[in-house]
Design brief:
Elements (H helix, E strand, L loop, with lengths): L3 H18 L9 H17 L10 H8 L4 H12 L8 H8 L20 H24 L1
Helix pairs in contact: 2-5, 2-6, 3-6, 4-5, 4-6
Length: about 140
């Protein structure tokens, strides 16, 4: 009797169980859940008034849209969030959920610098969320 089909089934079952051992199932991060978490953050950012919409410096925009800097930029936003909210805030919690979804490539350049003021944090985080959403949508389609 050939044990190859049994081995394939066993490997499939182990593959489905491994992420659960880390506290997450494979089905946890579907595009709808990612979109919901990003939307919740944007709603919070939009709920407080922002000064006249300042445009980002082209270098800052490039830094925020650079896919090799997604993880370092996320770390910068997690640290900056502490200036405005506690670690228990929805923004911080949602941002932290994206860490396991991002690769750890060798960054090409420095992560974004976030000034200690709300408007800088707000406009840069909105642009970063756009890049994060694009990356996650691309990742889920391929």
């Amino acid at each position: 009797m050939n044990s190859l089909p049994v081995l394939h089934l066993l490997l499939l079952l182990l593959g489905l169980q491994a992420p659960q051992a880390q506290g997450r199932s494979l089905l946890t991060y579907q595009p709808q859940q990612n979109f919901k978490m990003i939307s919740e953050i944007i709603d919070i950012l939009n709920s407080s008034p922002s000064p006249a919409e300042e445009t980002l410096d082209p270098n800052e925009t490039n830094t925020l849209l650079n896919t090799t800097l997604l993880r370092p930029n996320l770390n910068a936003f997690l640290n900056a969030t502490k200036n405005f909210y506690s670690n228990e805030s929805l923004i911080w919690k949602n941002l932290k959920e994206f860490l396991p979804l991002l690769p750890t490539p060798t960054p090409r350049g420095e992560p974004i610098y976030i000034e200690n003021n709300w408007s800088d944090f707000q406009k840069k985080l909105k642009k970063y969320l756009e890049a994060l959403d694009n990356f996650l949508n691309f990742k889920n389609k391929h």
